[in-house]
Amino acid sequence: xxxxxxxxxxxxxxxxxxxxxxxxxxxxxxxxxxxxxxxxxxxxxxxxxxxxxxxxxxxxxxxxxxxxxxxxxxxxxxxx
Length: 80
What we know:
The chain is an all-alpha fold. The chain has a domain at 1-31. It has 2 helices and no strands. The protein has helices at residues 6-28, 67-79. The radius of gyration is 35 Å and the shape is elongated.
């Protein structure tokens, strides 16, 4: 099977070679590479409660005026 990613590997090979050279220079100069433990993973947040606090005031959009209410309001406005 032919890999489509082979050209990407060859494309990035010069950068990988430069990094390898820099690492070799660092180690030759007395540098030391430490392998540290991985950082802790982010914990999954606790599940949200389905209970609603009775003191919470829910803000809901007011219903739109019906056609009959708009006509009545128009009549009232015209009578003024």
